[in-house]
Each structure stands twice: as C-alpha cells, then as structure tokens.
Amino acid sequence: GSAMKSNKDAITGQPIHSMVSERIRTSILNGELKPGVFIRQQHIADKYGVSQISVREALKDLASEGLVEHIPYCGVRVISYSLDDLSDLFALRAFIEGRTANTATKLITKAEIEYLSQLINEMKSAVEAEQFALYRELNRQFHLTIYQSSKSSFLIRTLEVLWSTYPTMLQGNFPQNDIPQAPERNQRDFMEHSKIVDALERRDANAAESAMYEHIENAGKELLASLRESKRQEVPGKKQGELRLQGKLEEVNK
Questions:
Q1: Phi first, then psi: what are they for 122, rounded to 5°?
Q2: pLDDT digits (tens, 9 = 90+) for 200-234
Q3: Cα-flanking dihedrals φ and ψ of residue 169, to 5°?
C-alpha cells in the first residue's frame, strides 16, 4: 500500500490517478458501478491504497469523458442516460456529420475516397456475429475519415466527444444483450455508405449532406426501436426501493 502514495505507480510508472480512473472506468462499463450511483471517494482510496487527491483527479478525468457528474453538496455519481439522450445524440450526429460531409466534398482527396471504398468492402465481409467489434471499428473509421477531411476543427472536436460518449451511453445504461450485435443493418449500411461515397466522388455537396444525414438518422431509429422493444419486455416493478435513494434514476435501468 504505502509505496503507492507517490504520484507515480511504482510498477507501471503511470500517474496514479490515471490508473485509478482506468479501474473506475472499467467498473462503470462492465456494469459493476450502476448509473445513478454515488461514488464513495474514501472507499475507492482505501480499495486501491491511494490518496483521496488521486481519486479526485481520476474523477475529474472521468467527468470530462462524460462518465460521471459532480452534484454540488452530494458528491460524484455515475451519469445515467435515457433513451431520449440517445435519440438526441443521433440527431446531433446526423446534423453535424451532414455538415462535415458537405464541406468534405470540396476537400476530400482521391486517396481518401479510395480508402472509404475499401472500408465499405471490408465491412461487407465482416458479417459474422463474432466480427461485430471489427465491423464497428471499420464503421467508425469510415465516419472519422469523412468528418476529418472536412478540416472543420470545431465540428471535428464536437464529433470526437459525441463518438466517445456513445459507447459509454450504451454500455453503462442498457443491458448488453439488448444491443443488436449482428445488425441487420449490414445490407442497408452498405447501400447508404455507397451513396455517401458516390456523392463525395461527384463532389455533390447537397447530396453528400443529405445521404449522411439520412444514414445516421436511420441507424439511430433502428437502434432506438430495438432498445424500446427490449424495454417493453422487461418485468415491471423490480427494485423499486432503488428509486427512492438515487433521485431521478433513469427508468431505463433495471
């Protein structure tokens, strides 16, 4: 224990607070720390044998990632997201990525367009359930390549935040098995992605913007529909006592 009280971890050499934030992040993402729950700083400090200052620094990092929030006079709690928040996230992405696709038509290079076509082909063959993580990564690269080629630094920064919030929103707040793992989207994704690349290739700004907007809107609608469906199948009246304690605990949580 006490050897760890310096600012660096004796073994890994990484700052103590980033080691602590890594562990808390893992506990949130694997559902050990539930949305709406207050994090007891002293408990974390004791558990990992670190100072409360390190725990505070770690929580600051996690707050900037949108995993926890600071409630005045109460402490820090794990953020809970609702289906409405998820819907808002897709609406924002559709609008902003539509704009970046519009700008990208003037700036995207031939090589980048070829790379997008290559990603589409790789996604087309990543159809097995166990390739879902790969599919998701290829999809992220596809979107990232387009919005970064717009060179709109403010919009790019905003999208980075939205893209990093998305997995947090899903993993912490909705049961894992409710998230469609092998999306029936593959065929539609393929067509929608191809339509976007086609518009970029033709340098048609309006077509690129509306193709991107529709694509993200469709993806959002589909995900929300499947999450709402699985919510309807939940057993009502579970753990009502939790609601008293945690104030406005989003109804999404079981």
A1: -65, -40
A2: 999 999 999 999 999 999 999 988 988 888 777 76
A3: -60, -45
